[in-house]
Amino acid sequence: MKPATPPQRCTPDPVAAPLEFAMRFTSTPRGARLARRLVSHRLNEWGHPYDSSVNEAVTLIAAELTANAVRHGHVPGRDFHLRISEAEGALRVEVGDTRGERLPAPGPPGPEGESGRGLLLVEALADDWGTAPRSGGPGKVVWAEVRLPGAGGREPVRPVRSGTP
């Protein structure tokens, strides 16, 4: 007599786990630059090629948010935190810093001003963005979401490069 075999269970296909990358960076221009490069590399690994409009838009959003964290959210001795994730047809970028009292507010930059355009770019490229209190400590998280084409999102605006027609 053969031993009894357990019944075969029919299990549904597992739902794809969201993709996520998170890391702390020094609150310096070099840290912001490294964060931007890692976002672009990670998006390429997730199937959004370097030259795609999604990769370029999300990388530019990450660059602006990390630059703002360094410039406006810097507290000596404290790092900023970057998190990107892909789930439910959207890419989300979150940048946290320890300056909760300084919330971003887009506004028209002065005609001669060298800054003040970053949040206008984020607003133009992202489908949604905002701020939230940072969990587990003082500070804030500035986030932006880009819905992926084919998942109810629009094709992201391709950033224009100088010297390109």
Automatic annotation (TrEMBL):
Pfam families named in the record: HATPase_c_2 (PF13581)
CDD domains: HATPase_RsbW-like (cd16936)
Chain residue ranges for the region called Disordered: 95-115
Keywords of the record: ATP-binding, Kinase, Nucleotide-binding, Serine/threonine-protein kinase, Transferase
Domain Histidine kinase/HSP90-like ATPase: 26-143
Keyword Cell inner membrane: no
MF terms in GO: ATP binding
PANTHER family per the UniProt record, alphabetical: ANTI-SIGMA-F FACTOR RSBW, ANTI-SIGMA-F FACTOR RSBW-RELATED
Name of the featured protein: ATP-binding protein
